[in-house]
Specification:
alpha+beta, elongated, about 15% helix, Porin
Length: about 180
């Protein structure tokens, strides 16, 4: 497990620092569910060349806490634009049960930063991903400043697919050579 985490971390830094453009995502908008230590709703929106924003709503189905996470993610084409590596980060906030003194021992709401790195595969209108999402709590749960959520798996429906960019310059150059 430590080896897998090290490889993903090194690949994330290499991909973020790599020069050049890549048209990685095959979608503009996708939404679905995520399962890690809990159950979440997730939505991603393409915002710029290779970048998406992702919002997660963590539900109280498995845990008693409700939370939100917002992530900016950079996508990198692995083999084709349907298979991507991505990495990013952003803020999270969890409303703890008993945060207002309802429980015998009150808890404070948790605010912090999340990182994310993983692989994503798009097949038709289905987008599947597996990733790691560690969290660093800046306030709230002082007893657990760092939280490791393990591997998360997401399944999303692609609501709005992106059109493929055609490289007309290559076709023009080939035609000129034949003439």
């Amino acid at each position: 497990m430590k080896y897998c985490i090290s490889v993903i971390t090194m690949a994330a830094f290499a991909a973020i620092l790599a020069p050049g453009k890549s048209s990685a995502q095959s979608y503009n908008t996708a939404a679905g569910i995520r399962v890690d230590k809990g159950f979440s709703f997730t939505a991603q929106q393409y915002i710029a060349e290779g970048w998406t924003i992702e919002g997660m709503l963590h539900t109280p189905i498995v845990t008693k806490n409700v939370g939100v996470t917002f992530l900016a993610e950079k996508h990198f084409k692995v083999i084709s634009r349907g298979l991507n590596f991505y990495a990013g980060g952003g803020p999270h906030y969890y409303w703890q049960k008993g945060a207002n003194g309802e429980a015998a021992e009150p808890y404070r709401d948790v605010f912090g930063l999340s990182g994310i790195a993983g692989l994503e595969l798009s097949l038709g209108r289905l987008n599947l991903s597996a990733d790691i999402k560690p969290e660093f709590h800046l306030s709230g749960d002082i007893s657990r400043v760092f939280s490791w959520n393990g591997v998360g798996v997401s399944g999303r429906y692609i609501i709005n697919k992106r059109e493929r960019k055609k490289d007309w310059d290559v076709k023009v150059k080939i035609r000129k050579r034949k003439a």
